[in-house]
Amino acid sequence: MSVASYNQISINNSALQHNYCLLKSRVGEDVRILAMVKADAYGHGMIEAASAFYEAGCRDFGVAEIDEGVRLRNSGMQGNIYIFLGFIASEVSLFFDYELVPVLYDIASAKVLSDEAIKRDTRISVHVKIDCGMTRLGVFPEAFDDFLSELKENPGIKLAGLASHFPKADEWESSQTLEQFKAFESVLASQEFGFQSIKHTANSGGILYFPQTHCDMVRAGIALYGYYPDGVSGREIERGDLLQPAMEFTTQVIQVKTVPAGVGVSYGHTYITETETTIAVLPVGYEDGLSRSLSNRGYVLIHGKRAKIIGRICMNLCMVDVSRMDNVKIGDRVTILGTQKDDGISGDEIAAWMGSISYEVLCLFGNNNERKCI
Fold first, then answer.
1. Is residue 237 part of a domain?
2. 1 domain-assigned
3. Active-site residue among 38, 129, 225, 286?
4. What pLDDT digit, counting tens, does each position of 233-288 carry?
5. Looking at 119, 182, 257, 267, which residue is catalytic?
6. 154 and 257 within one domain
7. Could you point out which of 51, 121, 298, 337 has its C-alpha 20 to 30 Å from the C-alpha of 351?
8. Does the global pTM surpass 0.90?
9. Strand positions, DSSP E, the chain
10. How many domains are there within the chain?
11. Is 98 a catalytic residue?
């Protein structure tokens, strides 16, 4: 017998596919979309989300670590699976056994891959990341000539792609993204590769706001899950079809109580009732991804109306003020993320209350609760 949690995450596969198709219409038929499904697809379920994107036409998928790639391949997923965070030398055989594509940023990893490829009498296709301004993983442009020379000394390696990543593509008025792209193009222009390599630089912001950076392939992340990389402002300036958020987070009321003025609520009594107050207790807390930073700040929806979170959020519980609502009772549906009647709470709004971004909200909720696809 399976027992369901009070707290449920619902993922709308139709929304995921809508977002993929919308982005595809923006980049055109000649540009491939690599769907980033790392971090369990931003909390949406790596295997389930990748399957939805595959049905919509996607054949390229990106994850962070090699174990994610193995799990994705073991699920039966076809297409190309890219590993973006490197690997431990003892794991090198997995790239060959599971047909995974390494994204390189150091020569030591290239040598390990080449040696394994030679043992297997084959060559492995790799992509190389160039750091043109993110100051994260990647080879600096000024070091790329030497890197490429050393790479050519590894006969088991086939250079199949070149990538970079934009740190400010969510700022559509910024000149930095195009300056970085020019730096990337300059690196490519300085070399005679002798083959057709795949170039990819554009993340969700690049896809939506900088079409000149689309190259041969783009890497879609947050936009696939229905959110704009610059938050609410991106949705407001959009003039065409909109991205559709795919995640909903609901729970239910497990107790209702009325207390007089002057009563402290939850740990530390950071909230004191000013008047007689009706409180609904919800079985959700920071263990479930409802950040403690939302204490005395966030809201939920009950009966289609907003109820403020009062007092500190606990590990498994929180309290909300329902004094202005009629007949709230045990079992009533509570929407934490999503719509209820005429109102809705988005990941962007929750992120603003937290001082964060929608990416974190989706990961927190999706990776800490039961999920179902609808």
1. no
2. no
3. 38
4. 889 888 889 999 999 999 999 999 999 999 999 999 999 999 999 999 999 999 99
5. 267
6. no
7. 51
8. yes
9. 8-11, 32-36, 60-63, 80-83, 101-104, 124-129, 157-163, 198-200, 217-220, 247-252, 255-259, 264-265, 271-272, 277-282, 299-302, 305-310, 318-321, 333-340, 343-345, 370-373
10. 2
11. no
